[in-house]
Amino acid sequence: MSQNTKLAVGHEKKERIPVWLYxxxxxxxxxxxxxxxxKSRSEFLENAAQMYAGYISADSAVKYLPAALVSAFQAxxxxxEDRIARLLFKxxxxxxMMMNVLAAGLEIDDxxxxxxxxxxxxxxxKTNGSITFKDTLREHDNGGFE
Length: 146
What we know:
Layout: H1 23-35, H2 41-57, H3 67-105, H4 110-127, H5 133-141
């Protein structure tokens, strides 16, 4: 172990290493080190190296993002989830009402229902879920769903 790597009283002793950087990189460091509240290039590079090493070794970069940013992301996702859940609930209620009305007025056997389900699945796949009532009526008028 070299003299530079010996531990001082409870603290590591820094080791001098050669570093080759482009002038543009040094310029970027000089501009950013004041924003990062670093007193020297060495301190900036130390902080940057620790940050990057932690980032690539972590399962998630969440701990390296500012807490306010993480909180904002989580709130946005939660609001989206809540809104989607409410809309799905409303849509499911409407669908249940429609199915009950149709079931009360129609007599369809199991084989016809299975055939209809298969055709509907194919139609949803073909249209990527973009189905309108008008298109469905047109399909029935053309003899597609009989």
